[in-house]
Each structure stands twice: as C-alpha cells, then as structure tokens.
Amino acid sequence: MNSLTAQRAAANTRHRLAGIGRGLIHFSWTAVRVPLLALLVTMEPLVCWILGAVAVLGVLVSLLFEFVVRLPHYPFWLMMGISVGVAALQIPYYLLIRLLSSR
Q: Domain residue spans in the chain?
C-alpha cells in the first residue's frame, strides 16, 4: 500500500510540474506575441501603403518602358511579376497578424 501511495504522489507531482511548465510556455508566448502584434498592427497602414505604392509604380514604369520608351531588352514580364509579388506580400502580412491575434 505504501508503494501505491508513493506512485500516486509521484504522478500528482508530475501532473503539477507539467501544468507549471505549460503555464510558463503560455506566459512566454504571450510575452512575445502581444508586443509583436502591437507593432504589426501599428505599422499596418504604412506597410500596406508602401507595398501598394511600389506595386503600382512598378506596373506604371513597366508599361512606360514597354510601350513608350521601347527599350530593346527591358524585362517587361519579370518586372510585372515582381510588381504583383510585391502587392501579394500583403497576404502573408495579414496572415501573420491573424496568427498572432488568435488565442
């Protein structure tokens, strides 16, 4: 009977230590998540404006160089793809905000 009581006490101690460990991990994650989320949400209008402006400017410059200036070796489709890629960078930005804001 003594060994049964000792086993229960050991299991209870392991259970408590596991709970404390989970609590520390949750506290650490929250301590990292909240300031990073605050920074991302604060910077969101500026980041989206810059990404949108770079994408539109890239498309306009590509169209200008392709149809008006007529540069012989201008990489039109590459520049259009880069412009679309810059505009698409907003998607992972919003996904990161969503990941950090969920519980």
A: 2-101
pLDDT value at 2 more than 70: no
- What the block records as the tokens of 8 is 């229960």
- Give Cβ neighbours of residue 47 (< 8 Å, ≥ 6 apart): 90, 93
Pair of tokens at residue 91: 């998607």
Sign of CA pseudo-dihedral 85, 86, 92, 98: negative
Collect all residues with Cβ–Cβ distance below 8 Å to 100 and sequence separation of at least 6. 33, 36, 37, 40
* Full-model pTM: 0.76
DSSP, residue by residue, 1-67: -HHHHHHHHHHHHHHHHHHHHHHHHHHHHHHHHHHHHHHHHHHHHHHHHHHHHHHHHHHHHHHHIII
Please write the tens of the pLDDT for every residue from 56-92. Answer: 999 999 999 999 998 888 999 999 999 999 999 999 9
Structure tokens of 27?
Answer: 């506290």
